[in-house]
Amino acid sequence: MKADKKFSDSMTRMVFAALAAMMILSGCRYNPLYDGQEFRLYCSEFGLFEKDGADVFIPVEYEKPLVLECYGGKGKSHSVTIQDPSLLDYSYSKTSVKYELLDDADIRPASVTLLPKKLGDTVITVSDDNGGGSIAVNVHICQAYKVLVVTDSHNSYEPGTVLAFKYGGIDDVVSFCRKNNPDGGSYHDNRPMDMEHIVDGKYRFVPSDNTVILELSYEADSNGQPCRGGMMTDKRFKVKFSYGKDANDPEEMMKYLHLDDLKISTKVEEDPYDVIYLLSFIDMEDEQNPDISPERARRFTAWSASIIPWMF
């Protein structure tokens, strides 16, 4: 019985191999991505789009492009139209299917890469050229922010507090926000965070030995939490690695923070560290008070900054 089964499996593999060889020699290319199913688009950051009206947010400057992949439909070629070409451009890549004898096919869907030009809202429509339908997507080209998200706190900012710095470091404004979706918009992706804006303040990174001090000025309530209409408060936090590691100099610490495009006293090279670190921000008032042990010092922790698109 086992011998019969082995013989059957062997014959099955031989038949599939022969069929694959025939397809390759005859030039046939069956593409399971375009088999008459409903035309749809997919974006890794925003999911599946099956009808008009979906919204995507993309920074005008960003390290990772936004890509729309095409699935379903009746053909393998597509047309793209943009409502306002002054805001957005695109590049199109055709589908490709490569067969190797006895191996699975390497199938790559057609894709549209979004290339933003300037801030604004527009619509991009991707159509199946063989009459399989079209989908229009609302594209919001917005400012990008680098954010530090408070993960843990000791008598300092509440967990979920966000410090947002405009990407590129073109000003000295820090936006204090509150993160509403605990799992979305992390440093693993570039989805927009669900954030509530609290108040704007001023910031400055000051070099100090082998690290930096973050100086903040903002409106706060009686507990020191950022709030609109509160009393002006000044805070200074020394940045340290949570597990005791030291940076070699302030410029290196800014790279570990993923904030090396922000201004400190010395210009840093454009070479960010990709590794994510957990960092502690220690209140300098407690740091310099001999009556307060390091364990009791006010502090908060945050992972290295991530870049997100965000619209107020």
What report would you give on this structure?
It is built from three helices and 20 strands. The protein is mainly beta and 312 residues long. The strands form four sheets. The protein has an eight-stranded antiparallel β-barrel. A five-stranded antiparallel beta sheet has the order 2-1-4-9-6, with no helix packed on it. A four-stranded mixed beta sheet has the order 3-11-10-5, with no helix packed on it. It is elongated, with a radius of gyration of 26 Å.
Structure summary:
With 312 residues, the chain is mainly beta. It is built from three helices and 20 strands.
Structural category is mainly beta
Number of helices: 3
Tell how many strands the DSSP assignment holds.
Answer: 20
**Major sheet characteristics:** 8 strands, antiparallel, barrel
Helix content: 10-25%
Strand % is: 35-45%
Secondary structure layout:
Layout: H1 2-26, E1 40-43, E2 47-49, E3 54-59, E4 66-71, E5 78-82, E6 88-93, E7 96-98, E8 106-108, E9 111-116, E10 120-128, E11 133-142, E12 144-154, E13 161-166, E14 173-179, E15 195-208, E16 211-220, E17 231-241, H2 250-256, E18 278-283, H3 284-287, E19 299-303, E20 306-309
Parallel strand pairs: 3-11
Antiparallel strand pairs: 1-2, 1-4, 4-9, 5-10, 6-9, 7-8, 10-11, 12-13, 12-19, 12-20, 13-14, 14-15, 15-16, 16-17, 17-18, 18-19
Main features:
disordered N terminus; 43% strand; mainly beta; 312 residues; 3 helices
